[in-house]
Write a structure and sequence with these properties.
Radius of gyration: 13 Å
Order of helices and strands: EHHEHEHEHEH
Largest sheet: 5 strands, parallel
Number of domains: 1
CATH class: Alpha Beta
Number of helices: 6
Oligomer: single chain
Structural class: alpha/beta
CATH superfamily: Methylglyoxal synthase-like domain
CATH architecture: 3-Layer(aba) Sandwich
Strand order of the largest sheet: 3-2-1-4-5
Number of strands: 5
Shape: globular
Length: about 120
């Protein structure tokens, strides 16, 4: 089964929820995981089944990175806030790097997320 991670910084969570609502039928076909707070908001607002990891600042980004390193993920939608520094920036950099190392599809904005979801559907 296709496995996709959904992550969003605080300022982008509403955008990710709207994206998930717009793509809900397709996302229901996937095995989904997310960082803690993002995952709970997605569950509450979409009803999607999502495996929740820790919150990003508590290691959730690294947990998802471990899934990438084990080749267990097909793609990640990570809506980042490019205008704010994050306290766990080293974890975010590690996740981005491991996606590059393992050639895992990574969307960091809504436009690329659309392409990722369309590509996984093929």
């Amino acid at each position: 089964m296709t496995r996709v991670a959904l992550i969003a910084h605080d300022e982008k969570k509403a955008d990710l929820i709207e994206f998930a609502q717009n793509h809900e039928p397709q996302l229901r076909e996937y095995d989904l995981l997310a960082t803690g707070t993002t995952g709970q908001r997605l569950i509450d607002e979409t009803g999607l089944e999502i495996e929740r990891k820790e919150s990003g600042p508590l290691g959730g980004d690294l947990q998802i990175g471990a899934e990438v390193a084990a080749d267990l993920l097909d793609g990640i939608v990570f809506l980042r806030d490019p205008l704010r520094a994050q306290p766990h920036e080293p974890d975010i950099s590690a996740l981005l790097r491991i996606c590059d190392v393992h050639d895992t599809a990574l969307a960091t904005n809504l436009a690329s997320a659309e392409f990722l979801i369309e590509g996984l559907a093929e």
